[in-house]
Amino acid sequence: MTEPMSDRTTLHRYPQRGRHDRATIDAILDEGLLAHLGFVHDGRPVVIPTIHARLGDTVYLHGSVASRAMRTARTLPVCVTVTLLDGLVLARSGFNSSMNYRSVLVFGDAREVVDQDEKRRALDRLVDHVLDGRMADLRPHTDLEMRQTTVLAVALDEASAKVRSGGPADDDEDLDATAWAGVVPLRLTAGTAEPAANLRPGIDTPTSVSDWHR
Amino acid sequence: MTEPMSDRTTLHRYPQRGRHDRATIDAILDEGLLAHLGFVHDGRPVVIPTIHARLGDTVYLHGSVASRAMRTARTLPVCVTVTLLDGLVLARSGFNSSMNYRSVLVFGDAREVVDQDEKRRALDRLVDHVLDGRMADLRPHTDLEMRQTTVLAVALDEASAKVRSGGPADDDEDLDATAWAGVVPLRLTAGTAEPAANLRPGIDTPTSVSDWHR
User: What CATH number does residue A123 fall under?
Assistant: First the structure.
C-alpha cells in the first residue's frame, strides 16, 4: 500500500508526531479496545464509542451502535479514531504539559457488509480482537443474530497515526523551576476476573482470561 | 438545569443504559483524561483526541488540536465524547459479549473563548484536570502562551451518559455452554513516575505524582 498523504491525513500541527506507516497504524488499531466513530447526522457531528477490529486492510465496526447512522445513508462518510493513553507529561509550565499517546485516524466511506461470509469473519474477528481465540470457545453466531447485527467496513486507504512519547519539552527559562517534572506512565490493566453468577460449577477461569493483558 | 431530552440525546438503542442526570455526566467528564472531539470539515466528520476539562456547566477544550476546525467556523457544531472502559464482558456468545463502560456525549456549538479571564481559568483547569493542584506549582501562563492557544467552550446543555455494568446477559439456551463467562475488570493505572532527565537535583517526587490515580 502506498502511504496516504491527502489533505485530511496530513498533520497540520506538530508534524514530527505524524506516522503514516502501516505497521504503526496496525499496531495501534490492534491494541486499542475501543474506537470512537464519527459521522454526520443532520449536518452535525456525532461521535460514539464502539468496539472495532482490523482484518487486513479493513476496519470493521459493529452495527447496532451505528444504526442511527445507518438509517441516513448507505455509504456513510466516517472518521474512526483509536487512541491509546501512555502517560501524563508533567512539564514546568501548563503550556508544555501534555500526554503521551498513540492515536490513529481512519477516514473513509463506511460500507455495510452484506456478504454473509465476510460478515461472519468480521463478527468473529470483533470477538477475537478483545480476547484472542475466544470465538473458538463459543458457538457460531446464529442466523438471527447475524440479521440483527449491522457490520460496517472502512478501508484503511486514508489513515494516519500520531505518537507522542518521552519526557516534557520545557522552555530553557523554565528549567530552574522548583516544580517536579517528568512522566507518569499509564496503562490499562486487568483486575481479577469475576465469574458470572450463573457460571456452571466446575468451569475454572482459563489462563487466557486470568492473564489477559494488552 | 433541566434534563435535556432532545432527539440527539435520546438513546435509540438500549434505553436502559441511558443516564441523563448531571451528577453521572459530571463524574464521567471529570474522571476521563481524554475526550474525542468530533466536528465537520468539508462535509465530512473528523474525530480527534484531546484533553478536556469541566468547569461548572461548561466543557473546555484546548485549541491547538482544533485549529483546523477553527479556521472553518467561529461557532462550530461539535460532539465531545468521553469514554471510560471498565471491563470486558465475556458472554457465552459473541452476540451477547460486550464491554462495561461509562460514556458521555456532549452536543453543542463550540465558541472560542476570547475573554482573557475566562480563558486563563479554563487553561488552569485543563492543567488541574490531569493532576489536581498542579497549576499552583507552576508559573502562570504567559501572554504569548495565551495568544498561541485557542480555547473552545461547549455548554453542557445537551449531554447524555450511557453506562453498562455488571456481568454478561446470556440467552437461557446458552447457559449450559462450557465456555467461561464473566467480567475482566479494567482500569487505567499509573506506573512509577519517571523524573525528567534535566530535573534539578534535590527535587523529590511529590506524593501527588507518586500516588496519582483516577
Answer: 2.30.110.10
